[in-house]
Amino acid sequence: MTVLKKNEKIKLELKEKLVMVNRVCKVTKGRRYFSFTALVIKGDENGVVGYGFGKAKEAQDAIYKAGEKAKKKLLKINIIKGGTIPHEQEAKYCGARVFICPASEGTGIIAGGAVRSVLEAVGLTNVLSKSKGSSNKINCIKATILALSKLRTVNTIALERGISIRKILKGSDNNY
Questions:
Q1: Which of 49, 138, 153, 163 is most buried, judged by most C-beta within 10 A?
Q2: Are 108 and 126 in contact (CB under 8 A)?
Q3: How far is residue 21 CA from its own chain's centroid?
């Protein structure tokens, strides 16, 4: 996972997906005040994704604010050939727990609700996922992005450890 720099964000063609709009009511002694919240996911379907949560008096303004916040929180995710992820990963955010797993070619995205919209925005095409615990859309999205940000390819691991890719794939010769 890498956070994109400002000049990298300008070049991207992002697609916006509205996950939810919620009407909120504040009741006072004199009257009721209505406002709106919106949750938006932006992605280029090529490994970049971000989410935003906006609040405003009008629904359109809330959606616009959420979209602008999503642009500021863009992350680069590791995707491997075949539109899947390099390995299984699980992440927890508050009460939401998300488990994502690589799938073979032709499987498609097996995910529900908010998790599916994040995986589509990233550009994954073959992934299995399971969501447990809270079904709160905000927490599910944050848990999914946390799981995706923990993914590492073989090349990344080899660079971090300072050893060859062949040695990582073959495993250790020492059996302790």
A1: 49
A2: yes
A3: 19
| Tens digits of residue pLDDT in 117-137 | 999 999 999 999 999 999 999
Q: What is the pTM of this model?
A: 0.85
DSSP β-bridge partners for residue 98: 91, 131
Q: Which domains does the chain have, with CATH numbers?
A: 2-75 (3.30.160.20), 80-157 (3.30.230.10)
